[in-house]
């Protein structure tokens, strides 16, 4: 193996490690309404054990490294690359399942973004999300034909879902990045800025997981609750913090989990780390 190959391998793993770190950082954030966080160590609220999720997040590293390497070798956002990424993603899902499961949405988001960064390392976030959208626009010809929850909800309600979000160039990832910058400039702490970014996504995302578990009325209730926190001044204000507590209690009582928003925040934290 040449020195150049060693360098490329290190860059691929460093990129994947940055993505996994973003996921671990998202998991550590609290209080996240309806999503696993360090308060939920016994899995009583979100039904996902936080310690197990942190452990299984590390299992994404080999797959994300392979995605980066494949993208770098392919060199363009082609249909072939999309098919290869899909195959690596399904293999990675199997590995993650053996370590406790979870993170399917984060793997979808991070896989496309990691591949896009590997294709154009010099690109800024807007260019990266656009490139990821070009990749997602290609069909995965080897994907199983059975419908998923998300595709079923997308067909029933016309929601974009994870695929639509990706094909559009991850608009909610870009909104989360803007929210991070805005909150920081207004003096919010880093956890408060990240929570405001999560709520920004929740306030408008047509989350197909929520549509499945809560229906359209439940989705609108979650969106309105997230908007309420932001309109009260965000999580760094007393009114905003109180609204966040109320939203958190409401989602816990219904067992509603806005998992799509968590995955997209993870994507935003990954891109934010690249430009920081």
From TrEMBL:
It catalyses: 3'-dephospho-CoA + ATP = 2'-(5''-triphospho-alpha-D-ribosyl)-3'-dephospho-CoA + adenine. The keyword Transferase applies. Residues 29-48, 131-155 are annotated as: Disordered. Residues 37-48 have a biased composition (Basic and acidic residues). Transmembrane segments: none annotated. It holds the Pfam family CitG. InterPro entries: CitG (IPR002736). It is an enzyme of class 2 (transferase). The keyword Thylakoid does not apply. GO terms for molecular function: ATP binding; glycosyltransferase activity; triphosphoribosyl-dephospho-CoA synthase activity. GO terms for biological process: prosthetic group biosynthetic process. Keywords: ATP-binding, Glycosyltransferase, Nucleotide-binding, Transferase. Its EC number is 2.4.2.52. PANTHER family: 2-(5''-TRIPHOSPHORIBOSYL)-3'-DEPHOSPHOCOENZYME-A SYNTHASE, TRIPHOSPHORIBOSYL-DEPHOSPHO-COA SYNTHASE. This is triphosphoribosyl-dephospho-CoA synthase. It comes from Streptomyces luteogriseus.
């Amino acid at each position: 193996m040449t020195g150049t190959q060693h360098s490329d391998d290190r860059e691929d793993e460093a990129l994947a490690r940055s993505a996994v770190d973003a996921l671990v950082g998202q998991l550590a954030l609290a209080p996240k309404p309806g999503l696993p966080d360090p308060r939920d160590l016994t899995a009583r609220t979100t039904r996902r054990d936080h310690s197990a999720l942190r452990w299984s997040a590390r299992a994404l590293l080999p797959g994300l490294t392979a995605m980066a390497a494949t993208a770098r070798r392919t060199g363009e956002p082609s249909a072939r690359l999309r098919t290869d990424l899909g195959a690596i993603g399904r293999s990675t899902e199997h590995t993650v399942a053996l370590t406790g499961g979870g993170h399917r949405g984060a793997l979808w988001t991070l896989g496309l973004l990691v591949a896009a960064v590997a294709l154009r390392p010099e690109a800024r976030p807007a260019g990266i999300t656009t490139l990821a959208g070009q990749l997602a626009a290609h069909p995965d010809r080897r994907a199983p034909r059975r419908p998923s929850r998300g595709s079923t909800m997308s067909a029933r309600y016309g929601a974009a879902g994870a695929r639509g979000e990706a094909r559009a160039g991850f608009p909610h990832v870009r909104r989360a990045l803007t929210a991070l910058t805005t909150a920081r400039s207004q003096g919010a702490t880093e956890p408060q800025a990240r929570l405001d970014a999560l709520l920004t996504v929740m306030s408008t995302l047509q989350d197909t997981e929520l549509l499945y578990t809560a229906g359209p009325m439940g989705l609108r209730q979650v969106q309105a609750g997230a908007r309420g926190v932001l309109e009260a001044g965000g999580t760094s204000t007393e009114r905003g913090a109180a609204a966040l507590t109320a939203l958190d209690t409401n989602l816990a009582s219904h067992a509603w989990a806005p998992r799509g928003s968590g995955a997209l925040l993870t994507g935003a934290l990954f891109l934010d780390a690249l430009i920081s």
